[in-house]
Design goal:
Helix content: 25-40%
Number of domains: 1
Structural class: alpha/beta
Distance between the termini: 29 Å
Radius of gyration: 16 Å
CATH superfamily: Glutaredoxin
Largest sheet: 8 strands, mixed
Strand content: 15-25%
Strand order of the largest sheet: 2-1-5-4-3-7-8-9
Length: 198
Amino acid sequence: MKKIIAIITIALFAIGLKSLEIDDKAPSFTLKDSNGKTHNLSDYKGKYVVLEWINFDCPFIKKHYSENNMQTLQKKYKDKGVVWLSICSSADGKQGNFKGEELNNRIKKEKANPTAYLIDESGKVGKSYGAKTTPHMFIINPDGKLVYSGGIDDTPSADPDDIKESKNYISSALDEALSGKEIKVKYGRPYGCGVKYK
């Protein structure tokens, strides 16, 4: 078992993935969105920010978008003042990497509703957060600290039928945080397709 853990650790180190802890300061970044507008994490200081690692062709992403689950969460919390940033770290030529009009057409087709869809083609931002899967979710508090990291829910499957019976970690964490309560579950095991880094 120790050997397996060591191999995994070496593999993650080899591709430059960080290991962020809860209450760590969220790494700053500057990325362009699907329309070419630049976004800095610092632009959203004083607000809760959700980061959603995305790849529209991943079956685990399709699970949540086909049932309107992710879009519902995006709208619900944006209406409450939360900033929702979808980030694609798929490298050029890899699954999930779309450009220009093709990208915006796909966002429209999926009825995605984030504050912005950000392009991290180099993978630098994904690796700085240790994003391993799509989806992999992070919540940053108004002080710029990480308060949740991990899976969207507690059911690691690609079956849309599982959504109704799952505990959604993102909605629970945001509801608790926005009402001034302590977040009960601050980490959930991430699951999904591996992020398609370079």
